[in-house]
Amino acid sequence: MAFTLPALPYLKESLEPFIDVMTMEIHHGKHHNAYVTTLNKAIENTDADKMSIEDILKNISKYPAIVRNNAGGHFNHCMFWTLLRPNGGGNPNGKLGNEIHSAFDSFDEFKKKFTKSAIGRFGSGWAWLIKNESGKLEICSTPNQDNPLMDIAENKGIPILGLDIWEHAYYLKYQNRRSEYIDAWWNIVNWEEASKRFLQVQKKEQKNTQIK
Ligand code: MN3
After folding, report:
1. What is the sign, positive or negative, of the torsion defined by CA atoms of 185, 186, 187, 192?
2. Under 8 Å CB-to-CB from 69, ≥6 apart: which residues?
3. Over the stretch 152-171, which tens digit does the pLDDT of each residue have?
4. How far is the CA of 122 from the centre of ligand 1 (A)?
5. How far is the CA of 10 from the centre of ligand 1 (A)?
6. pTM greater than 0.85
7. 22 C-alpha vs ligand 1 centroid, how far in Å?
8. Domain covering 94-211 assigned CATH 3.55.40.20 in the classification
9. Where do the domains of the chain lie?
10. Does the domain formed by 20-82 have CATH 3.40.50.1000?
11. How far, in Å, is the centroid of ligand 1 from the Cα of 90?
12. Is residue 139 within 8 Å of 131, Cβ to Cβ?
């Protein structure tokens, strides 16, 4: 079963002025598309051919770098698109909002720490809010197309929010000003989607404790 490029859940021009239409076009249509094509070629006739993307990532140490880079690239971008929306931003409410408050003292503190982590990642990579293996919210970052689901990740957990900090995500509009891109990104975060992800992880955790 080959992986496919998902359609964007909004018009590519609808994230303007925060992310420009040309960046969206190239980022989704060229970069993400290339991860999908390369991944499919790399896993053709291997056992990964029939696995879910999550299962590949959880066992990524068994695969060559080409699978690590492109399976990560595919998963990370699928998630990234859904975590953006026109007229997004603001503060998360509900259970995720409460959990962010208790883990980071306030939403502003969380924003500061997340921004710092994203700015501090040298070169290409991602910044994440994850629910870690002890069930706590945690901010971390990964290099290249790695992510916290991978068995080789330094900080393991399930991603709730992810920010692409590769230059291809912002260079056309922001050039070297990564922090301006991050400031803009907060205006289009899809907190409803992040909350949905958080609740799903919580549900799974509850099920697992019941089984134990
Ligand atoms: Mn990207």
Report:
1. positive
2. 35, 144, 145
3. 999 999 999 999 999 999 99
4. 15
5. 17
6. yes
7. 14
8. yes
9. 20-82, 94-211
10. no
11. 23
12. no
